[in-house]
Amino acid sequence: MRTLHAIFPAAAAATFGCLLTAPVAFAADGENTKLNLDNEAGKAAETASGASGGSIVRTIFGLAVVLGVIYGLHWVLKQVKKAKDSTDSGEALETIATLNLGTNRSLHLVRVGGEIVLLGAAEHQVTPIRRYSEAEAYSLGLLEPPSMTLASLEAEVEQPRGLMSVLRAKTVVK
Q1: Membrane-spanning regions, if any (predicted)?
Q2: What count of other Cβ atoms lies within 10 Å of the Cβ of residue 73?
Q3: Residue 107 falls within a domain, yes or no?
């Protein structure tokens, strides 16, 4: 449903742009236009210069419509990509580290739920090499232990350091 709402403004802008250019295309006579071979070159020059002001405005307006259509399509494609990216990987998959070994070969450390998997990726295949539990990954040094816990944050807040911190602790309403 979101995609439909995202595509509608771009489609409306494209249709509007096509409708603006249709009268210009039908108004041109092409090869059937008669040539003005009279000696009234001055009148023809005045007429051409008077009509050029309108054509500049029409050209600028057409350019604005084209830029609007391009921006609309860019916006729609970004929305579609964002929706596709969020549904592809899900919340349980996370790439922790990647190591390139050579052309089209690499190692990937991926968190899948509560498990860490070492994957080998080649040109045409992906092979699981080893599985680790989170505790095992922390003990082997594959993952960094979380440095800040809730208890350490609370202890840091309770003990203000320095004059400014003491003043802030006493004046800020909690």
Answers
A1: 56-77
A2: 15
A3: yes
Residue 73: which pLDDT band, with cuts at 50, 70 and 90? Answer: very high
First and final CA of the chain: distance in angstroms? 43
Same domain (yes/no): 107, 120: yes
- The 10 Å Cβ neighbour count of residue 12 is 11
In a domain, 152, yes or no: yes
Question: What pLDDT does 60 receive?
Answer: 93
Regarding whether 112 and 80 lie in a shared domain, the answer is no
Token representation of residue 38: 């009279």
Mean pLDDT of 37-41: 60
79 and 148 co-located in one domain: no
Rounded-to-integer distance, Cα 126 and Cα 24, Å: 57
pLDDT of res. 148: 58
The structure tokens listed for 43 are 């009148």
